[in-house]
Design brief:
328 residues; alpha/beta; five-stranded mixed beta sheet; 36% helix; globular
């Protein structure tokens, strides 16, 4: 680039981003000013409501909904978290829920309706198990990031002062997503908020038995490998500096490459690293693929699920959602 450009960036530190955030990898003509937000979910809200950062890690469904409402930023095909979603929906032992169709007529907890984990899970329930999502009452205890989003009538907010965790413990809801996406935390994702387990989930069971085997079969059959956050760049930055998407993509790809070397030689040993090694056994040697071609089945699936779940009125062209690093 002919001139030095400074970009504000909100991005979690992970194996894939560590070399970029540490300064080990630099971008010619571009200075990245990293703004740390804890939790990152709070940055999601700041980005979609006030477009606060030049570059931001953003939940995939939140991004699609925001872009559909005209938000002035566009994503790179960079996906920072991957996991499958046949597992992660817990049910009470006295719920009468023995198979996915039994969710119909019940109350199920998810932090917010547009949480990407919830969208993937509901998509699998509908398209793999025939669950009528409209017959399930989805209980939420947080607000949606995209303020313009109109929720379906079968999405209800918990009573004031209550949490999904407490309602699950009391038997007021019969099922809920585990962890931060549902019954494993309480309180809105405000600045300095941290996840807090409020009860043991040991007495709950997974809805779908032998989920790992089903996930592997599903991937082999469909090629769908669920992703979570992506990276968005403010449109006005790209208009002023058209090279930025390509340069940022190349830098993030190099950062990922260096991480995969550590993953493969055993140098990376954290829990997240070990989880990715297990993923590689299912999806192949790159458990965090970037780019459009490798991710097209997953992009199309998430968009389909978002439309089915009334988060988007219709699918968008992939070119409207993602910069193509091969043609920048």
């Amino acid at each position: 680039m002919a001139e030095n450009v400074t970009l504000s960036v909100s991005l979690r530190t992970s194996g894939q981003t560590a070399a970029l955030k540490s300064g080990e990898i630099t971008i010619p003509g571009v200075t990245l000013h990293f703004v740390e937000v804890e939790p990152q979910v709070a940055a999601f809200r700041r980005m979609v409501r006030s477009v606060e950062f030049d570059v931001c890690e953003l939940a995939a469904t939140t991004y699609m909904v925001a872009r559909g409402h005209g938000s002035p930023f566009k994503a790179l095909p960079v996906f920072l978290n991957r996991r499958f979603h046949h597992h992660g929906l817990l049910v009470r032992p006295d719920s009468g829920i023995n198979e996915p169709k039994d969710l119909e007529g019940k109350k199920v907890g998810v932090r917010a309706y547009s949480v990407t984990t919830g969208v993937w899970t509901r998509g699998i329930l509908q398209n793999e198990y025939g669950v009528d999502l409209g017959k399930v009452t989805w209980m939420v205890d947080d607000e949606e990031h995209v303020a313009q989003l109109q929720l379906p009538e079968n999405v209800l907010h918990v009573p004031e002062g209550r949490s999904l965790a407490g309602m699950m413990a009391a038997g007021e809801i019969e099922a809920g997503l585990q962890g931060n996406a549902g019954i494993g935390r309480e309180g809105p994702p405000t600045e300095n908020w941290s996840a807090k387990a409020t009860l043991s989930t040991d007495d709950y069971r997974e809805l779908i038995p032998d989920a790992s085997a089903r996930e592997a079969e599903w991937f082999a059959r469909t090629g769908i490998y669920p992703f979570h956050p992506t990276i968005v760049i403010k449109d006005e930055v790209v208009a002023a500096h058209p090279e930025v998407p390509r340069l940022l993509y190349e830098a993030m790809a190099e950062s990922k490459k260096r991480y995969l070397e550590k993953l493969n030689n055993g140098e990376a040993t954290a829990k997240a690293d070990n989880n990715l090694r297990k993923m590689a056994e299912i999806v192949g040697p790159d458990p965090v693929p970037y780019g459009l071609e490798a991710n097209m089945p997953s992009i199309e699936a998430l968009m389909t699920y978002a439309v089915q779940q009334k988060l988007m009125p219709s699918p968008m062209e992939v070119g409207e959602l993602f910069h193509d690093p091969e043609n920048i």
